[in-house]
Write a structure and sequence with these properties.
This protein is of the alpha/beta class. The chain has ten helices and eight strands. The chain is globular. GO terms for molecular function: methyltransferase activity.
């Protein structure tokens, strides 16, 4: 059996781009390797607006969590596909509103988990936990999350840019349903993902998929909206990510409409 540090090195796959690290590069971060920045540059060469799109999706997360912790009164969050820490992480936004909020972060990239454990520290009143797991294993995620979250009380499940990493053959809709199945009524789903209506983005993702350790699957807005089947959507429904409840004092800059999002409650 290999030494744990060798296992981590093998999982990092620093010779191939990884989505969380490429995303970090596109957001202007430093937690990435040369292969990741090179892959990011390929995307930007083909689709220069992608960095702006990454920022739009990150700001949607902050707006959604503010709504969930504020207006919806949610105090528990299950954040799947955490990504590398940046400004306004889920627990920071939630605990500014409600310090007692409890957050469980889930990712399967060892670099993400190392940084999360070092940087994503909870308020004394609340809690943060970190699960090394893949979205394809909802049973494990739910079992581990139940050690921190109380599943008899509502939970907000956040899934940003994660379902595009699941192929159709892996039945992404069933994975979302499995994760929601253990959450009680009054729980929420906040989800955003890339769409396939822009040819430049389609070419950029095709080039990325040709060299990356994990592929991305763009879908139609209707396919993304189907993840919310059986839930009650919060206004304005499933819309372009930039247009979901934009901040009055900071309207989004116009970008190509290449991702959609929504927030919905389980009845």
């Amino acid at each position: 059996m290999s030494h744990p540090s060798e296992e981590v090195r093998a999982r990092l796959q620093t010779d191939r781009p990884h989505s969380a690290r490429v995303w970090n590069y596109l957001l202007g971060g430093k937690d990435n390797y040369p292969v990741d920045s090179a892959a990011g540059d390929v995307i930007l060469t083909t689709f220069p607006e992608f960095a702006a799109v990454a920022q739009v999706q990150r700001r949607f997360l902050a707006r959604a969590v503010r709504f969930l912790a504020g207006e919806a009164g949610i105090r528990q969050f299950l954040d799947i596909g955490t990504g590398l820490p940046t400004a306004d992480n889920t627990h920071e936004v939630a605990q500014r509103i409600a310090p007692e909020s409890r957050i469980v972060y889930v990712d399967n990239d060892p670099l993400v988990l190392t940084h999360a454990q070092a940087l994503l520290t909870s308020s004394p009143e609340g809690a943060c936990a970190y699960i090394d797991a893949d979205v394809r294993d909802p049973e494990r995620i739910l079992a581990e999350a139940a050690k921190t979250l109380d599943f008899s009380r509502p939970v907000a499940l956040t899934m940003l840019g994660i379902m595009g990493q699941i192929s159709d053959a892996e039945r992404p809709g069933e994975l979302v349903n499995a994760l929601l199945s253990d959450l009680p009524p009054g729980s929420y789903l906040a989800l955003s993902d890339g769409t396939n209506g822009n040819e430049a983005l389609n070419r950029a993702v095709e080039a990325y998929n040709g060299q990356s350790a994990n592929t991305y699957h763009l879908r139609s807005p209707q396919d993304v909206a189907a993840y919310f089947a059986g839930l009650t959507l919060v206004e304005p429904g499933v819309v372009s990510t930039a247009t979901w409840r934009p901040d009055a004092d900071r309207p989004e800059e116009p970008t190509a409409e290449v991702s959609v999002c929504g927030v919905a409650v389980k009845n």
